[in-house]
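Appendix C reproduces, verbatim, an entry submitted by the partner laboratory led by Prof. M.T., so that reviewers can inspect both the input and the predicted structure.
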Amino acid sequence: MQRQKTYRPNVAAVILSSKYPDKCEFFVAHRSDIKNAWQFPQGGIDEGETPREALRRELLEEIGCDKVEVLGEYPEWISYDFPQKTTSKKLYAFDGQTQKYFLVRLKEGAEIDLQAYDIPEFQDYSFVGYDELFKKVTYFKRKVYRRVIDHFIKEGLI
């Protein structure tokens, strides 16, 4: 009998720069623990925490800033499996993640501080356009990212 897969509840932030809507730039960050892995900030939802509370906490932990305006929320949870090569010890108990995506805009004057948390999740970050985004982010997240961003575009939020 096949084992049922387990997925970690998680939030993810599609962050637009404070220049939006005049200029559409997406925030992506280079993970500290996985070579050449660029992605959106994301993280687990703690017990008793709502997805929006987890979003704020994760933003503070990962980029040192929760000064954002929430523009939208993807209507469904999206699940994906970790690639076989994933070696992150903190995720060993899960086959993948089920994520709630939020579209947020950095508020004017918001500052990113990747060193805000004890063990930095990211070592570098960049703001990129739509086309560059899908060239830069890690391969196994591209399909989900395109689905989420295209939904926000269709809804008129981007």
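The CA atoms of residues 63 and 114 lie 5 Å apart. Additional entries are available on request from the coordinating office.
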